[in-house]
Design goal:
It is a single chain. By secondary structure, the chain is α+β, with helices and mostly antiparallel strands. It has one domain: Gcn5-related N-acetyltransferase (GNAT) (Aminopeptidase, 3-Layer(aba) Sandwich). It contains three helices and seven strands. The strands form two sheets. Strands 1-2-3-4 form a four-stranded antiparallel β-sheet, with helices on both faces. A three-stranded antiparallel β-sheet has the order 5-7-6. Strand 6 and strand 7 (146-153) form a beta hairpin. The longest helix has 15 residues, at 98-112. It comes from Listeria fleischmannii subsp. fleischmannii. Residues 7-155 form the N-acetyltransferase domain. This is N-acetylglutamate synthase.
Length: 155
């Protein structure tokens, strides 16, 4: 098996839109939130702004993971951005550093856009620290939960 590649969903590429929407919805949405991903991904392909950007990880023609680079991940710290979000790797592909492929790719693109840091919110402890992220505090979601906030300096 070849090493999977991270690919940004290119702007103005509608043929990739439906598979990307379906994948993000399957991994991150429920019936009440499906339209969030559909609306966000569709408009991301049309905007001239550098964010949001959405990424898929492929093994050949098969999508095996995803992530996004966005301005805010439904968190109270709107002074911080961009945010790495929606990171997911298919269960049978985990443990092979494929999440690191996506994170490294996104960090590189964020740096090329002129950002000095990238942030993420999660309640996982121990995983992101292995990938150059440092805990900086807590943030609050509109639905009443809180999450740990991490940052990664892009150098």
């Amino acid at each position: 098996m070849e090493v999977p590649n991270a690919n940004k969903i290119p702007k103005k590429t509608p043929k990739l839109l439906r598979p990307a929407i379906n994948y993000f919805q399957a991994k991150w949405a429920n019936e009440d939130t499906k339209m969030i991903y559909e609306d966000c991904l569709a408009h991301a392909l049309e905007t001239e702004n550098p964010l949001p950007q959405w990424y898929l990880l492929y093994d050949g023609e098969k999508i095996i993971g995803c992530a996004g680079l966005i301005t805010n991940d439904f968190i109270s710290r709107m002074d911080l951005y961009p945010w790495l979000c929606a990171l997911y790797i298919e269960k049978n592909y985990r443990g092979r550093n494929y999440a690191e492929i996506l994170m490294t790719h996104i960090k590189k693109e964020a740096k090329q856009l002129g950002f000095k840091h990238v942030y993420l919110c999660t309640n996982h402890i121990g995983y992101y620290e292995k990938h150059q992220f440092s805990y900086i505090g807590e943030g609050y979601h509109p639905w009443g939960e809180k999450s740990r906030i991490y940052t990664c300096e892009l150098g």
